[in-house]
Amino acid sequence: MKTMKMWFQPSRAGGLLIPALALAIAAIFTGAARGGNRPGTSFEQRRNLSAVQTIYRRGVPQLTKHGQVLMKYDPKRSFLPVGMWGVPLPDKAYYGHRYDWSVLKRAGFNTVWVWYVPTIPAVKAAARFGLQVILDGPKSPKVLRLIRNSPNLLGDVWMDEPIGQLGAPGVDMARIFRAFMDYKKMAQSIDPNLVVFVNDGADVVPQATKDWWIKWNNAGDICSDDVYPNQAPSLGEEPNGIPQMVSLEVRSSHERKPAWLIVGALEQVHPRGNGFALRFATPTQLRAEVYAGIISGATGITYFIWDSFISRDVSLVGMSPDPQVDMGGTKPTPATPMQLVQSRALWGAATVINRELARLAPVILSPTVGPEVDYKVAISGRSRTVAPIRCMLKPDPRGGYVLLTVNIDDAVLRVNYTFPKPLREVATMFDHWPPRKFHPPVETFSVRYEPFETHVFRVIPAATSPPGGRATPNKR
Fold it and tell me: Above pLDDT 70, what percent of the chain?
């Protein structure tokens, strides 16, 4: 119980548990993410104002398993893709290793992104394991006709990271773009529900690059980007952090297209030059990456990459429930003992995160609560960025609200959440903390965040009737 009091505390007049400055700011400024960068606002004011995300007030763009776009959550049709990238076929031994897709199902994945494998066997394998499949690259009209009625076919990623080719000698980006649009038209003349898109990288500087990035994202049926800020002191480092890139997906599509995020679960083994290589995230960071994406507007999550000969061929160790020193391939890349430990740990973390996403899917895919619940956020502590806390309030189907929150910085912070009306109860959904029942009700509660920590709360206003009658007084 001592730990509980240190981490999760109500705040009442006469017994302030956060700095007075933070309370004063919370009393003056609303939590809506508007005006956060206006001239004259202090650093503390800007980071409080920037915390609350209010996108998707009118509806959340989401897919069915068969590629149709919905704007309203349907418990029978709505689909929150949780994917694994770089998946070999399950019925073939590659360099002495087999890849059992049932381990993906057990870990909570519902979508596979295959890579350079035969299309027909991939679609049949997805059907056998009950997974949706994203195909790799353009397919011939003949192949598309053969697979168009598959209930497990979700999409076709025509190209990976076209923005990376911009400015390369001999590359005509306009010609590549026209080829994509021609392919999309052809493919959807055969299968109108096939989701055709490109996945791009986190590269929006200079402006000419950003313009092409937006054009590519808007051209596909969904927006999809990979962002790997694992080595940064914040997941929100300018200009290519996770919140920035996902928010740009959402804004550029005017909140009308599903936005997907690919998070990094990889480590670079033989980096070139003296630059800082891609590093494994910690389990806590990986969870923060996912929730930073969700809170910024992602309606699909994919992990890069399943450890296999595919990853090792490009000098990467990926995540796996049973990683091996040598996975084979044309460019053997042995993993170190610590990389094996980290790979296994991230698989375990993803398994936990995926269970959370499955439980939260009806919440994530429902409209965001707006100014009708004008809650405020006050942050104390030294942060690395101007907006270290990101949060989003959703209606809870059981009554009250679900508050999704994440600390995107490598910083210890205290955060005060103040609601316009008294709260009867606040409980964490996944942290195993005892629920806090307030008697009398309070309007404010305070939470401590360790670096990159995520918390999801059930917030129950005092006016909400509890299932069993009166709220139990808090005796702690």
Answer: 87
287, 412, 305: which is closest to 354 by C-alpha?
Answer: 287
Q: What is the pLDDT, as a whole number, of residue 4?
A: 33
CATH number among 3.30.565.10, 3.40.50.1360, 2.60.120.260, 3.20.20.80, domain 62-364: 3.20.20.80
- The span from the CA of 266 to the CA of 308, in Å, is 11
* Chain-centroid distance, C-alpha 222: 15
Q: What is the mean pLDDT of residues 260-271?
A: 91
Tokens of 115: 């890579």
Between CA 461 and CA 459 the distance in angstroms is 7
Query: What residue ranges do the domains of the chain occupy?
Result: 2-54+374-461, 62-364
pLDDT at 468 over 70: no
pTM exceeds 0.70, yes or no: yes
pLDDT in the model for residue 5: 31
Please tell me the distance from the alpha carbon of residue 469 to that of residue 424, in angstroms, as a whole number. Answer: 12
Query: Given a cut of 80, is residue 14 above it in pLDDT?
Result: no
- 20: exposed, middle or buried (Cβ count in 10 Å: 0-12, 13-18, 19+): exposed
In this structure, the strands spanning 82-87 and 111-114 are parallel
Predicted confidence band of residue 61 (pLDDT cuts 50, 70, 90): very high
Q: 268-276: list long-range contacts, CB under 8 Å, 24+ apart.
A: 268/315, 268/316, 269/315, 269/316, 269/317, 269/333, 269/335, 269/339, 270/315, 270/333, 271/315, 276/231
Task: Name every residue whose Cβ is closer than 8 Å to that of residue 184 and which is 6 or more positions away in sequence.
Answer: 158, 196, 219, 220, 221
Burial class from Cβ neighbours inside 10 Å (0-12, 13-18, 19+) for residue 84 reads buried
Higher model confidence: residue 186 or residue 1? Answer: 186
* For range 171-190, the mean pLDDT: 97
Going by C-alpha positions, the residue among 149, 94, 84 that lies closest to residue 306 is: 84
| Distance of alpha carbon 449 from alpha carbon 351, whole angstroms | 22
